[in-house]
Write a structure and sequence with these properties.
By secondary structure, this protein is α/β, with parallel strands linked by helices. Helix content is 40%, strand content 14%. It has helices at 23-34, 56-65, 80-94, 117-145, 166-186, 205-209, 222-232, 246-254, and strands at 14-18, 38-43, 70-74, 99-102, 148-153, 191-197, 201-202, 218-219, 243-245. Strands 3-2-1-4-5-6-9 form a seven-stranded parallel beta sheet, with helices on both faces. Strands 7-8 form a two-stranded parallel ribbon. Helix 5 links the parallel strand 5 (148-153) and strand 6 (191-197).
């Protein structure tokens, strides 16, 4: 198959995907493997449970079944040593690091008075602090090879007040600030940093556990996988510092304007729930 924005030639590339034991992270790890990438599957979960199905080993096995190499790494992204170990193991195993997807996240969508400091600290640690530290340890390897993509899964910066999820948005918008700053500092090194956010609710363990509407209102993770591939298909220095919505990335980079196939039930609901302005 010839390379295209949705199916870039990523043979020889190595990607670290945090939070890839389940959900969006797992779907993206498998998709990148389909495009030729070797994958570092990084998350805390080693054993699947009924409440949290999926594990790093299951994702790694799925990658290997596609003929790609996989490294399952137990990574608690709240811990700096764990993140450093994740990057060091990547280099020892594969000798390079091309793509870093900061996907691991913590969510607590509650008002300020129902969000104690401990919960705030958890989101700051898992979301923005972890992404920053992962970039800190990954960047030297990308600079050395003069090629790299960093993708932070977070909303774009906005002046919207976000009532009921203020603490969550503080942490997530920190991830956006990180990407914008990294892009400016390292465009000269041919390293891209972008953010990606879904316009609608994506079917995942979070949407299930938090009872975010129902499946009729959800899109599949495929839309984020396609949008990510469209970004990674670009030469880093030519596609950096952008805060992408999935639909926007697909339209601008891949020419896609019909998104009906991404709905979980095969058709758009009468009144879709759009979350891109959270």
């Amino acid at each position: 198959m010839a390379a295209s924005p949705l199916h870039p030639d990523l043979r020889g590339r190595v990607a670290v995907v945090t939070g890839s034991s389940r959900g969006i992270g797992k779907a993206l790890a498998i998709r990148l493997a389909q495009e030729g990438t070797d994958i570092v599957v990084a998350a805390k979960t080693e054993q699947s449970t009924d409440r949290l199905p999926g594990s790093i080993h299951e994702t790694a096995d799925a990658v290997r079944a596609l003929g790609r190499r996989a490294l399952a790494v137990v990574a608690d992204v709240r811990d700096e040593d764990s993140i450093r170990n994740m990057i060091e193991k990547t280099i020892v195993e594969f000798g390079r690091l091309d793509i870093l997807v900061n996907n691991a996240g913590a969510i607590w969508a509650q008002p300020i008075l129902e969000t104690p400091p401990k919960r705030f600290d958890l989101m700051m640690g898992v979301n923005v602090r972890a992404a920053y530290i992962a970039c800190y340890y990954a960047l030297p390897h990308m600079i050395k090879q003069q090629w790299g993509h960093v993708l932070n899964m977070c909303p774009r910066l906005s002046s919207e007040p976000s009532p009921g999820k203020v603490a969550y948005m503080i942490s997530k918008l920190g991830m956006a600030r990180l990407a914008i700053g990294l892009a400016a500092e390292h465009k000269k090194d041919n390293i891209a940093a972008n953010t990606l956010c879904p316009r609608t609710i994506i079917e995942s363990q979070a949407s299930i556990n938090w009872k975010m509407a129902d499946r009729s209102q959800w899109r599949t993770p495929e839309i984020l996988c396609d949008a990510s591939c469209a970004i990674f298909a670009q030469e880093p220095k030519n596609c950096t510092g952008r805060q992408w919505i999935d639909e926007q990335a697909l339209t601008e980079l891949a020419g896609i304007t019909d998104f009906d196939r991404y709905w979980c039930e095969g058709k758009a609901p009468a009144k879709p729930i759009y979350i891109d302005k959270w």
